[in-house]
Amino acid sequence: MKRVTPALLVFDCDGVLVDSEPIASRVLAETLTELGFSLTPRQAIDRYTGISLPAVLAQVAAEWGRALPTDFAARLRDRQAFAAELQAMAGAAAMLAGLALPKCVASSGKLDKIRGNLALTGLLPYFAAHLFSAEMVARGKPAPDLFLLAAERMAVSPARCLVIEDSIAGVQAARAAGMRVVGFTGGAHMRSGDAEALLAAGASAVFSRMHDLPRLLDGQARSRRHTRLVGRPCAATAGA
């Protein structure tokens, strides 16, 4: 792996900074199943991880062949699971505290959700107001719009950005934006084979423990194969 010398780190939020994907997928599956659209949490993860809620709901409606209730998004927000269960990704706070590079968040979630989840887990101070949401652009991931907006607002060229992502849609969006991207496989929703899928989508490396990210930035992991093996194996992080 070539030495990584970014001028800006662009973090996805869900599944990277906060371990939210198992909670979100369970809540989505429960709410849809109550309406008659049978879905398991694992199916929700496999089908919808990394894309915005409006895109998820449009895809569900297309698969189901009927429109969802107009208050569906509000029903999801009314669930209390996030406040009770959400945790920062293990090691995220210490990793962020040790980073001197400029950093921001670019997530498919709504801005108030991004801010709320980061505040709830104690990570918001590391990003200040540098939060970017898919609701700020015309097209969400896998389109490059969100990452290009983040680069523009942070006054850094896309070629000098490094994106940290857990989803194929996010990796594709970063590559389409002309950015380098590394895959993170430490979330509880990840399972065996996801690391290879992220590499195949365009990630230059994968890692599974937050404290290993500075090693990538320092250029200590120099081969594609070695960076694949940084941290515990992906299979050990499987959530289902």
Give a verbal description of the structure:
The protein is an alpha/beta fold and 240 residues long. It folds into two domains: 8-20 and 86-237, Rossmann fold, CATH 3.40.50; 21-84, Putative phosphatase, domain 2 (DNA polymerase, domain 1, Orthogonal Bundle), CATH 1.10.150. Helix content is 41%, strand content 10%. The protein has helices at residues 21-35, 41-48, 53-64, 72-78, 81-85, 92-97, 111-120, 145-153, 168-176, 194-201, 213-217, 224-228, and strands at 8-11, 103-107, 131-133, 161-165, 180-184, 206-207. The longest helix is centred in the N-terminal third of the chain and has 15 residues, at 21-35. It is globular, with a radius of gyration of 17 Å.
Report the strand count. Answer: 6
CATH topology of the largest domain: Rossmann fold
Topology order in helix (H) and strand (E) letters? EHHHHHHEHEHEHEHEHH
Number of helices: 12
- The CATH superfamily label of the largest domain reads HAD superfamily/HAD-like
Please supply descriptive tags for the structure shown above:
41% helix; 240 residues; disordered C terminus; Rossmann fold; single chain; DNA polymerase, domain 1; 6 strands
